[in-house]
Amino acid sequence: MSDLSLLLWAVCGGLLGCLYTLSVQAEIARSQKMRLPFTHANPIFSISRVLLCSAVIITGIYQNIRYGIICLIFFLLSKTLSLFILVKRTKNIKKD
User: Which residue in 28, 21, 5 sits closest to 75, CA to CA?
Assistant: First the structure.
């Protein structure tokens, strides 16, 4: 197992977490444009997000358990961090 492979899986997990948050943000914006409550959002976007993330993480686990775990850790870290940034930015916009 090389350090480069671990780094690539970590970057992949980080990008996956950021893409997850961006897709959530796009779904919220789309539902606001249509003037629908977020609870009426199209479930296909949620299903596709979960399937894509699961497929990438499971692929990492099949390659090597360490790849899958490092991908999962960086996915969770980047998703949590980007969601906090999104919420903070949204709060600042509403205050103005």
Answer: 21
